[in-house]
Amino acid sequence: MQTFEGKIAVVTGAASGIGKGLAEKCLAEGMSVVMADIEEDVLTKVAREFQEAGNNNVLAVKTDVSILEEIENLKQKALDTFGAVHLLFNNAGVSAEGNAWEHTQQDWEWVMGVNLWSVVHGIRAFVPQMIEQGDECYIVNTASAAGLLGGSTNASYAVTKHGVVALTEILYRDFASGNLNIGASVLCPGFINTNIMDSARNRQDRFADNREIIESEERAANLALFEETLRNGMPPAELADIVFTGIRKRQLYIQTHDMFNDMIMARAENITKGNNPDPGLSLG
User: Fold this and answer.
1) Rounded-to-integer distance, Cα 201 and Cα 95, Å
2) 3-class SS at 147?
């Protein structure tokens, strides 16, 4: 896909962070945009701001991406309003704190629902429509650099992001082997200036639990350091430019930071040589 003028994009997690940056880039490229997010007030505000700036082809749809029926509703509203969907960004994401056994059932279900099931739902809902349209279409699934590394972050987040990478690899293969006019990329961002550390603000009631986080100086220091790293991270607008370059190249893997490449290579070498990683490091 080289040109975007007049095409229709759907972006999940569009009210803030990476999703907002992608939506704004789509508008700058001349697309109409369907913006989906669970944070309705912020979503409505951002969509209004875009419209007031002269970007009038914007539709805001409150969506819980962990529910298939809401993704189906998102698709239908996009079709009812614009008649087609050419570019889908399965982008919504959250993060919960803890290791594999400290995560509660609700933690696992929340992170899996938003980060991984939402991508499955998006593919199941939109791909048949894209095939029926016959137009050139494209799907970008947001994973993370954590989806390319080993043991680099908390359990549920890492599991879902590795899952999104694997799912997109299969999607890419299936589109190619089926000679379908649809491309696929997996976005694996590094440190981006977003508010993902505050993602619990949108945690659905059905995923709520009463787990008590044990406060400590070490935890507070680690959180403060990571939040500072994110504040100094790449602006979402810069990421969006990288993504569109990747789409134009039909590039399966889209990274934002080459600083992770040595760790990716180290992980691959550990796998192929049967080496165990050093558990004291961010694992490659």
Assistant:
1) 11
2) helix
Tell me the pLDDT tens digit for each residue of 115-136. Answer: 999 999 999 999 999 999 999 9
Alpha-carbon gap, residue 182 to 69, rounded angstroms: 23
> In whole numbers, what is the pLDDT of the chain averaged over residues?
92
The SS3 of residue 58 is strand
Q: SS3 sequence, 177-191?
A: HCCCCEEEEEEECCC
Q: In the beta sheet, which residues pair with residue 36? A: 12, 61
Catalytic residues: 157
**CA angle 42-44-45, nearest 5°?**
65
Query: Which of 28, 12, 32 lies closest to 20, judged by CA?
Result: 12
Mean pLDDT of 231-243: 92
What is the C-alpha separation between 65 and 141, in angstroms, rounded?
Answer: 13
Q: What is the pLDDT of residue 284?
A: 47
* Cα distances (angstroms) measured from residue 8 to each of 27, 37, 72, 246: 10, 17, 16, 18
